[in-house]
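LOG
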Amino acid sequence: MSAVPLSLRRLDTGSASFEGDLRALIAFEAAQDPAIDTTVAGIVADVCVRGDAAVLDYTKRFDRVDAQSVASLEIAATDMRDAFVGLASAERNALAVAASRIRAYHERQKSGDWCHQDPDGSELGQRVTALDRAGIYVPGGKAAYPSSVLMNAIPANVAGVGEIIMVVPAPDGIRNPLVLAAAHVAGVTRTFTIGGAQAVAALAYGTQTIPAVDKICGPGNAYVAAAKRRVFGVVGIDMVAGASEILVIADATANPDWVALDLFAQAEHDELAQALLLSPDAGLLDRVDASAQRLLAEMPRATIIAAAFARRGALIKTRDLAEACAVANRVAPEHLELAVTDPDALLPQIRHAGAIFIGHYSSESLGDYCAGSNHVLPTGRTARFSSPLGVYDFQKRSNVLRLTQAAAQTLGPIAATLARGEGLFAHARAAEARIACRQK
């Protein structure tokens, strides 16, 4: 039995101190540690200049792998296939089913070209094209994250990305077969066993062996996040991931054990994770508290869960479910569960959330692994203005204009007037040149 104490903070929206308490609870300092940023700046600059040689030096230093060439750190496609074939049947089936559902979900996100014709015959439209090459960062070390491989690589594959380059650290040269098998299932093109800021820099700038990509996606530690910030602009990035978050809105019909376990599922990620429960039913809060105290003893990561609750967790009493939704919108959580009798009545009131899980059976854990939707979600209140990772992150859109002579004569004076108002006379002359004269 675990002896780890669990302190569950209680808040009440009716309290005079609630506003200040909530601000303090959801405040999260996302600024980069200056020491980390300085270290990463040196690594990125070194990889940019020395390429493979720098990658080899940092791989030896941080992963304790003394490789003779970066080419020796590349995993052959046959090795990834063999890793899949060599899995136990249960793991192989789980990967296959999850990948199939994730692929089916993201296939529905595809948006095609379109074109609209004006009465004068002019055409305005859009072309959608995939990125040429995407980079996928997968965390390594003690933990293995095959789900991250599926969630990042499959949308890129569905979007039609030409090449998907995966990097994953392999400390002490230990390669995780489940991660390699997931890469095989997800359609990864090439995989290199490198990690950290040096891997991000190699993907962004390219080396003698590792090709430069157009966009880098995938989570990592503080050094990886700092490196993604630093190379943004040279390449695109998905987002800078923060600590995991869950907010559950529940009524008296919720199963307290299920709610407690769903809160634990995010809290066990790390000590900075956030787990919040909102309910107008004080009895439900009491029952979840009791369940959490009892179930913590069964959790291998009890110490991390308890630390996360102590820092950023709370059980919050609201006046009603409508107020719970209003508070949830202020928090803008990564994961939001509606564990209530009539979740569809609340759904229209939710404006800001990375993923919304509707009903008692919709555990966020299913979304993390195999429901099909993407688990790469906005954190740190960024759900107010950003979206989950999807096919659209690996596509770009080009405006297409085919203007007739009639359109040029109609629109030319308008463009010229606006251009002169901005002091851009060449713009004005270019528009006016087409007003009266046909092309010679």
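LOG (cont.) second protein
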Amino acid sequence: MKITIQNFFLTLALLSGIYPAAAQDTRFFRIAGPATTTITAFRPDGSMVWSNAEPGTNYIVQTALSLSEGTNWTDYVQLPVANRVNTNQLVDFNPPGGMVFIPAGIFTMGDVLDNESDAKPTNTIVSAFYLDANLVSYWQWQPVYGWATNNGYSFANAGSGRDTNQPVQTIDWYDAIKWCNARSQMAGLTPVYYADAAFTQIFTNGESIPFANWTNNGYRLPTEAEWEKAARGGLIGQRFPWGDTISETQANYYGNTVLDSYDSGPNGYNAAFSSGGKPYTSPVGYFMPNGYGLYDMAGNVFEWCWDWYGTPYAGGTDPHGADLETYRVIRGGAWNGYAGNDRCSGRAGDYPFAANGYYGFRCARDF
């Protein structure tokens, strides 16, 4: 089937099963471009292939959760992206179960609104990848942890969860790395992290610095650049994954309307979750997703990233962070943190052996 588009939008309604809600979510896509283009294939892997009628012509793919008057379309990706996307492969509509496709592209990484000293804006290019739609839940953590400990792995922390559908926490960076490897092996994928530079010994024990084989197809932690691009959800220059202000109806965090003018509060812990004893985490997928279909990219628990916490961070293409520092990057804010931590550009770091009730993670995979 061929569909020709010339100076108007093509809207695709796709039924996706990647969200945890009882009913599946419908997500709509549209393509805008100044010149004729032809969709040449909808491939079995879920991607769509198209051709440019005029070399160098840019098209914008946008997405929305509904079609109604005043629909809020958000940019999904601009194609082609200079030096990165030259195969005219638009988007992957069929990512691995529980994951979301994050398109390749250039974006401004860093803070353009609040003059954050450790997040100076820089242009960064990120290749396409997959990211878990949700934080790793305690329910998801347990069977992989059990398999791992029965197959030669050892962890510094067993992990904890306020409930099975809430994020796993009280795990350190090394625990998350090893869990990614175990999840890869259980799924028949090639692990990313190794105990040696020759990539002969899978990282399963101890808390020494692992080596990453970025060409492997297994689960891994996102890089800091990948995390921020994903958190923005296609929006440009906004504080949060949905806009410039925040309230407890949008994220699980500690409100302080005096400290941050963009915090609509109310003040204190989120009332929906602040009972029954700390940690006051919330169910994964409780709040609305961002433009890419990702949940909890602001608040709930901080998320471990691969990178060492360095200042300034590197821009360029697919950066992996500083070579060696003291702390590993944590992103996204937490139930006990102020709104500033929840910003897409908000950065923090901690010792990789730190484990507490407000550190969790989600996994990435290469596309």
